[in-house]
Amino acid sequence: EQEFAKAKAVKKTAVQRLDALRGKQKERVLSSEELESVGDWQYFALLEALKTIKASTTEQLSELIGVPASQIDDHLERLTALNLVRFEDGKWRSISQIATESSLPSSTIRRTHRALLKRAYESVERQSVKDRYLSSSLLAVKNSDRQRAFAAIENFVIKFNSEFGVEEAGDDVYAFTLQFFNLLSQPAEQPAISSRASDRCN
């Protein structure tokens, strides 16, 4: 427990340092009810697409994300109600990032993880290696090192997102997913449902 507390403190310091280095877009922490209404992957993709040079109208967003324009209108209405997007100067803008409570176990977040993993699977066949990066490793680990490993991954994600994510004039929207899980057989009657801080989308 002492080791985990230390790892969390290191993560907090990293977040504060990186936020100071880069003018990070403010986060809007959603309740479980709010998350349920905007938790599908399309909403996250929509928020990021609005930061690119490719999309600012409903029709452009519909074509980029691959959903009907009427559905985009509904998504934008919900995001506006949560103060996540705004229509100004003739186009839509993303003004806040979605964040979730770290202790919130959510079927919505798990559904989004599954949807993004499905699209990662599809990218293996549909995208050129010059447009995507996929890597897998298998390694034996000590259970006593898991919390340190989780903290190291979280710190890397924070640094990666801060260095490469942009708030405007982006060229494309990329999905960055990481999986670090027990590969050995797990009892079917005891699915592992985590409520860790990393079980979130942002």
Provide keyphrases for this structure.
4 strands, two-stranded parallel ribbon, 8% strand, mainly alpha, 7 helices, two-stranded antiparallel sheet, 202 residues
- Our measurement of the CA-to-CA distance between the termini, rounded to an integer number of angstroms, reads 27 Å
Uncertain spans, ≥5 residues at pLDDT below 50? 191-197
Describe the largest sheet.
Answer: 2 strands, parallel
Spatial extent as radius of gyration: 18 Å
Descriptive report:
With 202 residues, the protein is mainly α. Helix content is 48%, strand content 8%. It is built from seven helices and four strands. It has helices at 2-21, 32-38, 41-49, 58-65, 69-81, 107-126, 146-164; strands spanning 27-30, 85-88, 91-94, 97-100. The strands form two sheets. The protein has a two-stranded parallel ribbon with strand order 1-4. α1 runs parallel beside α7 (146-164) and α4 packs across α5. The model is unreliable at 191-197 (pLDDT under 50).
Question: How do you describe this structure in short?
Answer:
By secondary structure, this protein is mainly alpha-helical. It has helices spanning about 1-20, 30-40, 40-50, 60-65, 70-80, 105-125, 145-165, and strands spanning about 25-30, 85-90, 90-95, 95-100.
Helices and strands in order, then pairings?
Blueprint: H1 2-21, E1 27-30, H2 32-38, H3 41-49, H4 58-65, H5 69-81, E2 85-88, E3 91-94, E4 97-100, H6 107-126, H7 146-164
Parallel strand pairs: 1-4
Antiparallel strand pairs: 2-3
